[in-house]
């Protein structure tokens, strides 16, 4: 069993297609966005992952090592809104 441990995090939990889904963005270095099926709480299962790190020159000097998903909103409009410390607002399409 995989164990998901985070230090600080931003998360959203809701029911989608009959499953309880958790969107988790860790506030530790390079934690990015994880989507977990937590319908069976003792056995969370990762169902999606989005790496917010961009392997190009950083947007801000000195921030290339501090890429973290620190805010998540899932307003049920078909998109997932993620705030990343280096890249800013990312808008992902739900599928």
Describe this entry's structure for a reader.
- The protein is mainly beta.
- Helices cover 0% and strands 46% of the residues.
- Strands 1-2-3-4 form a four-stranded antiparallel sheet, with no helix packed on it. Strands 5-6-7 form a three-stranded antiparallel sheet, with no helix packed on it.
- Strand 3 (33-37) and strand 4 (45-50) form a beta hairpin.
- What is the string of helix and strand elements? EEEEEEE
The number of distinct helices, counting runs of at least 4 residues, comes to 0
What is the strand arrangement across the widest sheet? Answer: 1-2-3-4
Q: What's the average pLDDT?
A: 75
Please estimate the helix content.
under 10%
Largest sheet: 4 strands, antiparallel
DSSP E strands, number: 7
SS content category: mainly beta
Distance between the termini: 26 Å
The coarse overall form would be globular
The total number of structural domains is 1
Report Rg: 14 Å
How big a fraction of the residues is strand? over 45%
Question: Concise description?
Answer:
With 95 residues, the chain is mostly beta strands.
Overview features:
95 residues, mainly beta, 4-stranded antiparallel β-sheet, 3-stranded antiparallel β-sheet, 7 strands, 0% helix, 46% strand, globular
Write the layout of secondary structure elements.
Blueprint: E1 9-16, E2 19-26, E3 33-37, E4 45-50, E5 69-73, E6 79-84, E7 88-93
Antiparallel strand pairs: 1-2, 2-3, 3-4, 5-6, 6-7
């Amino acid at each position: 069993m995989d164990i998901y441990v985070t230090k600080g995090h931003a998360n959203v939990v809701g029911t989608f297609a009959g499953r309880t889904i958790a969107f988790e963005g860790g506030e530790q270095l390079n934690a990015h966005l994880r989507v977990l099926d937590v319908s069976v709480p003792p056995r969370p299962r990762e169902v999606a992952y989005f790496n917010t790190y961009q392997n190009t020159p950083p947007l801000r000097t000195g921030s290339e090592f501090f890429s973290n998903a620190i805010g998540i909103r899932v307003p049920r409009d078909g998109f997932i809104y993620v705030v990343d410390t280096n890249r800013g607002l990312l808008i992902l399409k739900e599928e």
